[in-house]
From TrEMBL, chains A, B:
PANTHER family: THYMIDINE PHOSPHORYLASE. Its EC number is 2.4.2.4. It holds the Pfam family Glycos_transf_3. Keywords: Glycosyltransferase, Transferase. Residues 431-498 form the Pyrimidine nucleoside phosphorylase C-terminal domain. Coiled coil: none annotated. It comes from the Bacteria. InterPro entries: Glycosyl_Trfase_fam3, Glycosyl_Trfase_fam3_N_dom_sf, Nuc_phospho_transferase, PYNP-like_C_sf, PYNP_C, Pyrmidine_PPase_CS, Thym_Pase_Put, Thymidine/AMP_Pase. This is thymidine phosphorylase. It catalyses: thymidine + phosphate = 2-deoxy-alpha-D-ribose 1-phosphate + thymine.
Length: 504, 504
């Protein structure tokens, strides 16, 4: 189409943050809306220099913008790398050709390799709206992806982003599919494995809906926002790292897909397997341990489900040249005692420092995974991995390596729990028989976690503990009195969510 | 949860129009975001007095809003019926229970009647985000809905909105599933049927992506934005109406579903049938004629597809007590000569006024449908409907009735084509053998249709016309020189889209 000067707009920054959705705002009565027929929710291409993004248009019916002006959502300003007063050209979006494969899938046709490559490539380029991604996710959900389709999807995702090469024959990694609260084995396993002489370039995520993600926890002890070059330096020096994965664009398509899956609360086995294994492969891993917790609130609710997932993980791993070992673990209760970044970090340090009151469940879990990793990598013979990991931990070698990795990442600091504290006391004596983990997490979030890294809960009475009346069950930590009040408000309005049965 | 005063926000109107999506804007660093953990894309409940809506939150990182203030999208201001300076309370959204049925459908479980009632009811209440509706649409797409599920969905939609009762035993209606350009039979059929003494309370839609919808066309001759009471008055007086359906909330859930289907460009047969028949039943119709055009760009591409649709329409109609007759028609080329509201209205009036150059294709199509309607309603004996319709049209009775309906709706006026006109001439002599309708529609839209009701195209050379070099092929109509230039710009940048083969 001939370019029309009315399609060129000057940018103003209104500061509208719509998460990962590219949006453009223009006046409803502007020339561009009249001439192009743009209305709210039109999908458009926004160009600046040689770069372009796809965005959803919203019209403004107030004097926030003038004719000839446009604003972008914050994410779109970043994606297009433009600034206030820059000029952008806006045009209609041509139909997304690859979406016809998604439509065909709705009619139960199978994806072939090329179709999934096109789809993932178009999602990576930002061509798909959230609505279109939701359709793709739904069409792939349930048992709708056969093994070969999962393999194609995995390969397409590997090819869609940055690929790392560590120039070593053996790179180990781990992943837990469960999202089990407090399951912070990573900062314990990484130093054990690195101390054994292996290479483990571990990236982790931040919290999305939970009071803390692994990256949030590690960040209370050492910087985690490293550039790819910095990560490579750390790994070259120390054999391992514990960083946030968000700066390395391993799989941009997958990030968008996961966002929509979370919004739908849908876990599609095929997509999850492709997501996990493609990230491991693209990050340069050769040997990966997958931790599958089984429990009521975990992703795998029964052992049967876990076995099926194990089969898929191994088969897809085989097809992409990644050695995959699966460990099926207990996912019935949270791990450790802290909930919130600094408080979980305290658990991690207690284990690494071999403190007598360190949470044994966290320690045992970390040793089991590290042991399997040592065996898989051929550093320990079968059956001796756990022992060797224990030796590396209890000798203090893991702690030393932990400090060295932290130094390489920018320095170690003690995690600082928040200053305002409040003990919640047992109202009767007896034995703790049930804990509502979801409500506990809510209290931790109301107290400020993870935005205030010191906020959260420290749990003093795990399942089976015998308590006296008036004994602290848990302590709430917060940065401000207001946040504490907010958590206490919620506590007082809720039924008791720690069940104590009296002695019989 | 104990209500916290920080959850009460004062509204400011920023004039952000996000189509049919409820959105709420708050400051990123506001107390409510900190205490509730709200981030962009959190789904929240917004309450005012006894009313509430569900909205998607977006945070503002600029001084557009103060702490304690919020803005809503224009649609949300309307949905919640609030104004600037009103106070709203914002809270987390509880999980939408009915969505578990959608998840189950992804795993190939069948919907039962209760599940579809809950889903449609929750969509009606605005509980589903566009992402969730996209998942529902996708899960129902292809052949995923069995006949009983289509029947449950139809019944659920009938019960979700306003139901009209005309207190008459026989109410006729029609619907064309095709979206064939220029297919404006409605303003011809309604007066014929009403002149025959039947009751036909016809509601129509406006253009979404086309240069004109039936309501846009009728609006160039008479008001179409009538309240339900006004519609009832018109029908009581004249036996028929030709109004916009948007003011009558027949099926609010369906409007949202259709919006997402259009965004995905997905036509699910099951959902389309439920949508059409539920609207007819809720609007009080007892006898409905369904026009299924068959053609390359129509919904039904082959006669076989049309036959299958016919079966579903009849079977679902039977189960909800609606008599359905299906007419399978030619959908291979547009109907009439005008493209754009006033220009299509001119075609309609030419037929009603029996002008010698009235488009015969439009006339014949209208008579066929009206004839079947008369037969179905028992007013004409089988085989005589077409003739009776023709008699009512050619005698001028239909025109008289048309004027009377217009008077009842608020008065008749002649449609006014836009003043600036430009003839596009044949560059060679020969016979018109091919017309690219999509590009013609684009020119009409660039010229200003449907926002400028007089703008569009009048087509002088339908398929098969013999033309001389320099003879006008079509005329562009626009309100401003700028819009005309814009259409001409597009024309000059495109290859010839009317094919003229020279005499052989």
């Amino acid at each position: 189409m001939a370019e029309n000067h009315s399609n060129v707009l000057r940018l103003r920054r209104l500061g509208i943050d719509t998460h990962t959705e590219n949006m453009i705002f223009v006046r409803a009565d502007s020339q561009i809306c009249r001439s192009e027929g743009f209305t709210s929710n039109t999908r458009v291409v926004v160009m600046n220099g040689g770069s372009s993004i796809i965005a959803t248009l919203a019209v403004i019916t107030s004097p926030l913008l003038l004719d000839g002006e446009a604003s972008l959502s914050e994410f779109a300003f970043e994606s297009l790398q433009v600034h206030e007063n820059d000029q952008v050209t806006v045009a209609h979006l041509r139909p997304i050709l690859s979406f016809r494969h998604v439509r065909a899938k709705m009619f139960d046709k199978k994806f072939n390799e090329l179709a999934l490559q096109h789809i993932v490539s178009d999602i990576t380029k930002g061509f798909y709206s959230h609505i279109e991604i939701a359709a793709f996710v739904t069409a792939c959900s349930g048992d709708n992806l056969a093994l070969d389709e999962v393999i194609y999807l995995t390969k397409a995702m590997i090819n869609s982003g940055t690929k790392l090469n560590w120039h070593k024959p053996l790179i180990v990694d781990k992943h837990c599919i469960g999202g089990l609260p407090g399951n912070r084995t990573t900062p314990i396993i990484v130093p054990i494995i690195a101390a054994a002489g292996l290479t483990i370039p571990k990236t982790s995520s931040r919290a999305i809906t939970s009071p803390a993600g692994t990256a949030d926890v590690v960040e209370t002890m050492t910087p985690v926002n490293l550039t790819l070059e910095q990560i490579q330096d750390v790994v070259r020096k120390e054999g391992g790292c514990m960083v946030w994965g968000g700066t390395v664009k391993i799989s941009p398509a997958d990030d968008l897909i996961i966002y929509v899956e979370k919004a739908l609360d849908v876990d599609s086995a095929g997509q999850m397997i492709a997501s996990v294994l493609s990230k491991k492969a693209a990050a340069g891993s050769t040997h990966t341990i997958i931790d599958i917790p089984v429990g009521e609130t975990a992703k795998a609710r029964t052992k049967e489900e876990a076995f099926l997932l194990e089969y898929y993980f191994r088969a897809v791993g085989l097809s992409i040249g990644l050695e995959v070992e699966v460990l099926i673990t207990d996912g019935s209760q949270p791990v450790g005692r802290g909930i919130g970044p600094a408080l979980e970090a305290r658990d991690v340090l207690a284990v690494l420092r071999n403190e007598p009151d360190a949470p044994t469940d966290l320690k045992e879990r970390a040793l089991k995974l590290a042991g399997l990793m040592l065996e898989t990598a051929g550093v320990a013979t079968k059956g001796t991995g756990n022992m060797q990991a224990q030796q590396l931990l209890e000798s203090g070698e893991a702690l030393t390596k932990f400090y060295r990795i932290c130094e390489a990442q920018g320095g170690f600091k003690e995690p600082t729990p928040a200053p305002i504290r409040h003990d919640v006391l047992a109202q009767t004596e007896g034995t703790v028989t049930k804990i509502d983990n979801r409500r506990l997490a809510k209290v931790a979030k109301l107290a400020g976690a993870p935005k205030s890294p010191g906020a959260g809960i420290y749990f003093n009475a795990p399942l089976g503990t015998t308590v006296q009346q008036g004994q602290p069950l848990f302590t709430i930590y917060s940065e401000t009195q207001g946040e504490l009040d907010y958590a206490l408000d919620f506590l007082s309005s809720e039924n008791q969510f720690i069940q104590i049965d009296s002695y019989t």
